[in-house]
Amino acid sequence: MADTKQLHRSLGLRLVIVVVIGNIIGSGVYKKVAPMAAELHSPGWVLVCWLLGGIITLFGALSNAEVAGLLADTGGEYAYYKRIYNRFFAFIYGWSLFTVIQTAAISSLAYVFAQSLHGLAEVPPLLESWASVDIAGVFYPFADFNVKLTAILLIIFLTWINTRGLKAGAGLSSAILVLVFIGIGLIVCFGLGSGQADLSRSFDMRTPASTPVTFSAVFAAMLSAFWAYQGWAAVGFVGGEIKDPHRNIPRGITIGVFTVIAIYLLVNATYLALLPIQDLEAVYQAGNKIAAIEAIKSFWGAGGGFFISILILVTTLGCTNATVLASCRTYFAMAREGLFFRKAAELNHAQVPAKSLVFQCVWACVLVLSGTFDQLTDMIIFAVFIYYGATTLGVFILRRKMPDAPRPYKAWGYPVVPAIMILFCIALFFNTIMVRPREAGIGLVLMLTGIPMYWWFLKKNTPEKKPVEEAVHA
Question: Residue 276: is it exposed, middle or buried by C-beta count within 10 angstroms (0-12/13-18/19+)?
Answer without folding.
Answer: middle
